[in-house]
Amino acid sequence: MIPSPLPPAPGPRRRARRTGALRIAQVLLLVAAILTTACERRPSGPSPDEVRAQIARLLPGYVADRKGWAVDIYAAFAALDIEPSAQNICAVLAVTEQESNFNPHPPVPGLGRIARAEIERRAQRIHVPALVVRAALQLESPDGRTWERRLAAVRTEKELSDLYEEMTDTVPLGRRLLAGANPVRTGGPMQVSIAFAERHAGAERYPYPVQGSIRHEVFTRRGGMYFGIAHLLDYPAPYDRPLYRFADFNAGWYASRNAAFQSAVARLAGAALDLDGDLVHHRDRDVVGATERALRALAPRLQMTEAEIRDALEISHGPRFERTDLYRRVFELADRKAGRPLPRALVPRIRLQSPKITRRLTTAWFAERVEGRYRRCMAKARSGRR
């Protein structure tokens, strides 16, 4: 029996290729082992289904369609790339409960009367006689009722907003009298500012098909929660308590930080300032407010010019203000004068003004009420109860 011939010995090139392939395989195995170990060590976060189940569990017991609410809330977190932690979920639920009791279209007592008064004020400002306004409202609308009757019948802000748009397009003098003057400025289950929603949608991609307009989207549950969550959580804030973020939801981004800055300025200047978190008139650069006047008096101590002070104040509604020389020097001097670090956040002292409000309410009242709801939600989250 003739033995089979041995295979020829590999040449130098074949040996090099085989050695190279072996090294590549070894490297790939090593990378796979590292990745496997890292995955084993890194705890995986909850799945979307688990997060939605947690949201549904944390909703107040009276809320209907818990699954639908959980779906829309989770979708907003995902679209905005905000962590759906228990703290963030409870913050959203607390604000929503305070603002609407989870009613996408909360009724407003006397809304028709409020709207009629707003139309009359608008007419007076643009010198339209009251007789003309009354005559226009007595005309028959497309559904057979007079505009006056329909206006008196509205119960929710969505109804009023839709009616206002219809009147703008249909009523004689409607565009002159009503265009750009829709009295409904907030909407949806979180009562988010419609102006904020329109700005946000202009800067970031809105994740849903727009039905009509962004104003219309605010009055849907999905849109109202999306824009409300964006207003509450989609900005970096240097706060050690959720109370201040709740105050910002009511008074505007960074209002709590800015109120603390105003307090420090008042201490340094020996001046009484309204701690409202509004540091500068953004609409009119020629207007100098009380806070800016106090800072100008401090300019030599701050080693800054009036122009430098104004430039810093112009970005006081954003995160970069904390990194300005103005912010840093004011607190350095104020901390030294107080002999201790002063608070970097204070709830703004603002009385809430709205035709819908019939009691004496403040931003502090709102923030404290929401924080109480937040704490109850967090206790429920920690206990695991339904």
From TrEMBL:
Pfam families: DUF1615. InterPro entries: DUF1615 (IPR011673). This is DUF1615 domain-containing protein.
